Amino acid sequence: MEFIRKTEKIFEDANFIRQLGVNILKIEKGYCETEIEIKDFHKQQHNFIHAGVIATLADHTAGAAATTIAKPDEEVLTIEFKINFLRPADGEKIRCESRLIREGKKIMVAESDVFSLKGGIEKSVAKAIVTLTAAEF
Questions:
Q1: C-alpha angle with apex 68: 63 to 70, nearest 5 degrees?
Q2: Please, which residues bridge with residue 114 across strands?
Q3: For the whole model, what pTM was predicted?
Q4: Which residues of the chain have pLDDT under 50?
Q5: 54 in Cβ contact with 115 (< 8 Å)
Q6: Is 16 left (phi over 0), alpha (psi -120 to 50) or beta?
Q7: Which residues contact 127 (CB under 8 A, 6 or more apart)?
């Protein structure tokens, strides 16, 4: 279960991720699920959850999914990502599910689905495709 501790550490060591309040819900090989309890500072001028918050959650959670399969001496970095925002996000929480869809030796591709929770109803708000690399630092 060393991969779980290594994955938890990328959340602990990332200052911006800690400031956003990202919480880990589940870690498995090739999969990570996270959430953020929404505060006022997460919102943009129209009172929706800021796109940057959603994109950050999608990207970092994808990186966590990739970290679960990286070698012990490798770290994961995003090479590229594309995100589609499906609807404005509001509510009490946003949740992200990221899973690897391609596991190469150095290049991995993950998909992230982001949902908002409002009044007990969860809605899909964004989908991202994230390309990552594993490298020694």
A1: 85
A2: 96, 126
A3: 0.97
A4: none
A5: no
A6: alpha
A7: 83, 84, 86, 111, 112, 113, 114
